[in-house]
User: Which sequence fits this backbone?
């Protein structure tokens, strides 16, 4: 029987030890590249350490050169992220889905490159997670959303269960029947969901913590009970908790000692059985 795992280690090295097609769902919330502090690599194209230029061959190399020529900082960011996404593709089951969580600074670049890396036909959705909390700029429209890019391994065989997800209130309940109002509507690709409250019970203190409601919706839609879920930028461990509560098995990876402490404390409080590995 599959075991829940918390891995304390560098994620690329950890991913390389995992067997092919061993996860139904991958969710990652990588650093958003907001600091623009990466070191230049001076690479004219992106390729993995093995020379793999992507799953679309020459087309991928051409897209990389074209897109990354516009922004040297993003080229460095993608040099960091791309080999991890290649491993994610390998690790996804044929029916599997990956959710890549980014903000507005990188989403437009990432969409083009993910099309080339996974295949444009494997693009499923661009989810907008909208929230209304924090400071409001008066010199521009305040940025109050994240982007979650959704890609599947095989567009002919991927799993998606819309009936398993939570429902939302109708914005115009007077236009639908009372029965529909009581049931609620299926979510669209725009999700209105508050951030983790700084004073709420869900708060762990980890600075980039994501709400359980977002991960519950993702896991419910794209996996079944008993399936394996992977998050290799685990942060506060929200993916692990949501997977456990929905009866999925999880593997989460982070090399930050603060992250591992928060995750293990969170899981211990829930009585979750897991294996802690150091790699």
Assistant:
């Amino acid at each position: 029987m599959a075991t829940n795992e918390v891995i304390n280690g560098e994620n690329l090295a950890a991913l390389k030890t995992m067997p092919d097609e061993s996860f139904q769902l991958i969710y990652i919330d990588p650093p958003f590249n907001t600091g623009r502090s990466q070191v230049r690599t001076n690479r004219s194209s992106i390729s993995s350490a093995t020379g793999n230029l992507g799953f679309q061959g020459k087309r991928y190399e051409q897209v990389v050169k074209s897109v990354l020529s516009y922004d040297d900082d993003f080229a460095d960011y993608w040099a960091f992220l791309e080999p991890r996404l290649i491993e994610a593709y390998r690790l996804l089951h044929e029916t599997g889905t990956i959710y890549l969580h980014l903000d507005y600074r990188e989403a437009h670049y990432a969409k083009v490159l993910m099309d080339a890396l996974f295949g444009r036909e494997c693009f499923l959705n661009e989810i907008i997670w909208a929230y209304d909390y924090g400071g409001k700029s008066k010199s521009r429209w305040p940025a109050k959303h994240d982007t979650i890019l959704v890609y599947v391994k095989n567009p002919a065989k991927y799993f998606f269960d819309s009936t398993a997800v939570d429902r939302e209130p109708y914005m115009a309940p007077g236009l639908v029947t009372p029965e529909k109002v009581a049931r609620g509507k299926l979510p669209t690709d725009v999700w209105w969901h508050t951030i983790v409250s700084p004073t709420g019970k869900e708060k762990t203190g980890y600075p980039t913590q994501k709400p359980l409601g977002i991960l519950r919706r993702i896991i419910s839609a794209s996996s079944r009970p008993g399936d394996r879920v992977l998050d290799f930028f685990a942060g506060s461990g929200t993916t692990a908790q949501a997977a456990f509560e929905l009866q999925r098995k999880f593997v989460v990876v982070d090399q930050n000692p603060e992250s591992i402490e928060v995750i293990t404390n969170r899981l211990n409080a829930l009585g979750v059985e897991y294996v802690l590995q150091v790699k």
